[in-house]
Predict the structure.
Amino acid sequence: MAPRVQKRFENKIAVVTGAGQGMGKQVAMDLAAEGAKVVVTDIVPELIEEVRKEIEQCGGKCMSVICDVTSSEQIDRMIQKTIDAFGRVDILINNAGLLIPGTIEETSDELIDKTLDINVKGVLYAIRAVTPLMKKQRYGRIVSVSSITGKRGDNSTIFVYGASKGAVISLTRSAARQLGPFGITVNAIAPHAVMTSLMSYWDEEKKREVAEQIPVKRLGTVEDISYLMMFLASDESSFITGETININGGYYMD
């Protein structure tokens, strides 16, 4: 965890779902480096325990909680544990997600349900769980992960994935409208070509082809994503809400 000059999140409590690896792990570590007390959640206990240890070894404060975002009961318990430990929730990063490559014919009922449960219901449950707390505080920052596929569709993932990420864009706007009067901002990001474990189905040739199509001529990194999520989680973005911000090196512009 590289040291940072800024301390934008001192005295802030942040919850990050899907924090065991990839983008979630990176933003959890970066938030901690800038002073936040971070609650990391995932369904794999070994992963979030490792993240917790890394954060604490760097001097940060962190609590790990096993949580399946498809269960509203588990999300509610996780938020209650956060309140019991830290007294409030200032930042919610909805990062947990599922991406499976495949065709329309390969999109089974089971895959439809699983994708919607994680990518849509998980975000809805988490926002619902923190809303009373953030309203009472009259402060909150909610950042969810959508995708380029939520805006333009996709031809390499099961087609429910794009639908699920489009839903994140819509629910972000709805939550932003309802929560704005309480000092709560709600935004999303729409990444493309960010090299995490979810993108392991891209071979080296595919990566080179995609990078060549991107104006900045490279693929994205978890650090790129973390920088944007932290900006949206900070007070620097207090006049931005209801937006889904592209982060794709210029590949898709709208």
Q: What stands out?
A: The first helix runs from residue 22 to 33.
